Amino acid sequence: MKKSILFFSLWILIHLFPVFAQNNPQHIILTWKNAPETSQAVTWRSEKPLDHPIVELYKSSSSPIESLSKIPFLLDSTKVSLADQGTWYYYSANFESLNPGTSYTYRVGDLDSEMSPLMDFKTPKEKGGLRFLYLGDIQNDIYKWGTRTIRAAYQHSPHSAFMLFAGDCVNDGHQNSQWEEWFDALGFIPTHMPIVPVTGNHEYDELPGSDEESLSIFWQSQFELPLNGPKGLEESVYFYDIQSIKIIVLNSLMALQSEEDLSYQTEWLEKVLQENPQEWTIVSYHHPLFSSRDGKHGQYPELRDAWQPVFEKYGVDLVLQGHDHMYGRSSKQSQSIEVPDGQAGPVYIVSVAGPKMYGIKKGDRWMERAAVNTQLFQEISIEKDKLEFRAFTVEGELYDSFDLIKNPKGFNFFKEHINSASTPEKTFPNGTYSNK
């Protein structure tokens, strides 16, 4: 009885008296809104409005931070409220005119209250090699299972320029508790390694009182992303130019829900590729163009018919996807081009980082290398005319490996280091590819 009274009293204090809400910086995350070499965006949130929100930014030094000069900037703020979950206050800053290849130190918080610890990031160089990490769906049991994949990826490649999530970061886009799990799983990583998020179908959900699915109410507040996408899809469709690479992010769910939206995105994609001066082009979205997974999901011919010819026409090098909760890789899927042996058109990848797993139907198999029931992360390195792709299991085992080498006279040369003819594939415990 006494315990019940104590718990009820605590509930009253927390929910009816906002003074007990926390204003310490939470969910600190780096993203990019503008050119990665010369800018950096940071976002954080608190549980009550801050009187004097501030970000302190310095050029990094081994000397005490107080001896350095602060760099000025502007702060933006937004408020997110969900009747059954709570209210949060988001603050963001977009640093501009930074120096390429330079380390910076920063902290965020309230001038008269709580501040974060000092943290560091480094802007990419204008030229030279670039490495980044790519993870498929985390989605379920994020803190329990997703944490180990995220941290295994970071431990393997702590100096990567960024970490890309190919959709379904959470299972219910409007659930604060699941985003809290996602941020807990990331830990300190996003405070110094920028995140590139892609929308999946689970980033969309129905808000209370609505019959229509909408993008997570947290998405645009917690991620500062480019506004260079088609009108109405900004911050879920966008691109970056970073060194010699163009990274393009599409919104496959909205494209699948509307023919008009698919056409809209396809026109935007073609325009971006027409004007693309970069040597390497990488596209990411959630729903794969090719699928052999079991379960209720399957092929998406409307995406394939619209996007694959555009990828082939403009020489897209790599396509990073999620959704199927298995691993697949192929360099031999083509619709409008003929690719000679030893070369590759667009290389399509599907991967999964979380614990939710599906099987594959062997009769529908499109991939040259596959895995089921396996948590993976991928490291992609690009330097000059060579792209190295490496897929690792969560235990650090090199599972898939190939290189793309630019060919001035045609398609990329394709060098496969691991193939399924010589290296066994991961299957379910019963030895099959399907758990159905």
Automatic annotation (TrEMBL):
Superkingdom of origin organism: Bacteria
Keyword line: Signal
Domain Purple acid phosphatase N-terminal, first and last residues per copy: 25-123
Any one Gene Ontology molecular-function term assigned to this protein's record: metal ion binding
Classification via Pfam families: Metallophos, Pur_ac_phosph_N
Residues in the signal sequence: 1-21
Keyword ATP-binding among record annotations: no
Residue ranges of every copy of the Calcineurin-like phosphoesterase domain listed in the record: 130-327
InterPro entries linked: Calcineurin-like_PHP (IPR004843), Metallo-depent_PP-like (IPR029052), PAPs-like (IPR039331), PAPs_N (IPR015914), Purple_acid_Pase-like_N (IPR008963)
Name of the protein in question: Purple acid Phosphatase, N-terminal domain
Annotated source species: Algoriphagus zhangzhouensis
